[in-house]
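#struct-help
A.M.: can someone run this one for me? Single chain, 300 residues.
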Amino acid sequence: MVVATGFFDGVHLGHRFVISRLVEAARQRGEESMVVSFWPHPRTVLQDGARDLRLLSSLEEKKALLLSLGVDRVEILPFTREFSRLSTEEYLRDVLKARFGATAILLGYDNRMGSNPAGPEEIGHIAESLGLDVIRTGSISAQDGPVISSTRIRKALAEGDVCAASAMLGYDYGLLGVVVAGNRLGRTIGFPTANMQLYEPLKLLPANGVYLVGVKTLGRELYGMCNIGNRPTVNLGDAISIETNIFGFNEFIYGLDLELRFLGRIREEQRFDGMEGLRAQLSKDREQALEMLAKINAAL
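D.P.: on it. Structure tokens below:
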């Protein structure tokens, strides 16, 4: 069993580079490939900035992404305080080797593990002393720029740059949730919206604003424009809502799944003097969204 281990939040292009090497190495050795990951995120257990932590992928999204890359097995270990006290040697010997039958471990350029925590060079030496083969990988950059990382992707999303985030991820960043009842104000001005409640509360939201989105519901692939924010024109509270006006769609979907893919940012969230000003801006937003969509389709 050839094993790669880490949290792999978002399973971005940097992770995919590592996973491709994992799958390739396992096939060359005539063995299976395995990813060993953790849940919840270590910071939520160790309280290291846990209040500000937001994730790029839910547990189910992460597992599905890893399996889609050809990994034979994905094992998720509960991350607890007791687990966090394992040394690098204990984790390699008692978990990866004894429990999962690892014969080789794949190490990325920034791998860390154990309560120490050891870096790639030290991990490699310990693994070899335990009889594990060590396969090393480099790093991957975005268009010859900085090394791709979950931190850089989170920063891009926090700035509303969903295109840059998706370029580093290797797929369109998305949200998954259930449609819940709203105040139905959008319907009164000709822009009915589906209000989403996320299945994963810690999923990172792009910066407040209006976005062109791909929409999946009722088994159909659609498009729309999504507003993320606290709706300053109609609501003075701080609660953040996720509202999507689905183009050419007016069916009852309360209580059903809604999946969004972020394709581009239209504008920042704004406050208008009244509903007429909001309606006029939404008409402009829809025109701009359709123009963006036409350009995207033309480039395919």
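A.M.: thanks! The mean pLDDT is 91.
D.P.: also worth noting: DSSP finds ten helices and eleven strands in the chain.
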